[in-house]
Amino acid sequence: MRHNAGMPGHLILVRHAESVVPRPGGPDEFHRPLTETGLAQAENLVAELVSARPTLIVSSPYLRAVQTVEPLARAVGLPVRTRWELREWDSGLEPTPDYARYYAESWADPAAARPGGESLRQLTDRAVAALTALAGESDGGTVVVGSHGTFVARALVGFGMSTVDWEFSRAMPMPAIYRIEVS
C-alpha cells in the first residue's frame, strides 16, 4: 500500500498474553507459546480490538506474539503477517531467574550492550523504524502490532513517552494495549 502524505498511521501495540516462562532447556524464544490462560486472554482481546477496524495485523515472529493476535485476525478476516524487526529485545542474556537485575542495569544505561546482544537504545531505534514503516504502509488505517514487553516499552520511549522506565516496563501486564499515532 502507498502512504498518503500527511495521513497519520494509527498503531495499536499489543504486548503478548501470558506465556510459558522461559527456562533453560525449555522452548526457545521462537517457540515459547501462550499458556492456557494466555490463549483465553488473546480471545478476550478481540472484543476491544475489533472496534478499531484494523486494516493490517502484523506480529513478531515469536509464537507467543502471533498467538496473541491470531484470534483478532480470524475475527476480522485478515492474515497475521510477521516481521523480524518486531521481535523482542535481544538482551544478550540466557534465561536466568535474576534477569530483573540485568534489565534494571540496562534501563539505567540504555547505550550499554552485552556481548552478542543489542542495547536498549538500539532496540528503541529498531522499534521506531519498524513502526514508522508500518504506519507508512497503513494508508491512514489501523495497524495492530503483536510484540513483546521490552519492545513495546522502548517503542513508547522512542515516540516520546517520557514516563516509561524500568518500573513501567516491569509492571506492564500481559497482555497490554497501547495506541500511538505516527505521522
From TrEMBL:
Alphabetically, the GO molecular function entries are: phosphatase activity
**Which Gene3D superfamilies does the UniProt entry name for this protein?**
Phosphoglycerate mutase-like
Matches recorded under SUPFAM superfamilies = Phosphoglycerate mutase-like (SSF53254)
Which Pfam families is this protein grouped with?
His_Phos_1
Q: What is this protein called?
A: 2,3-bisphosphoglycerate-dependent phosphoglycerate mutase
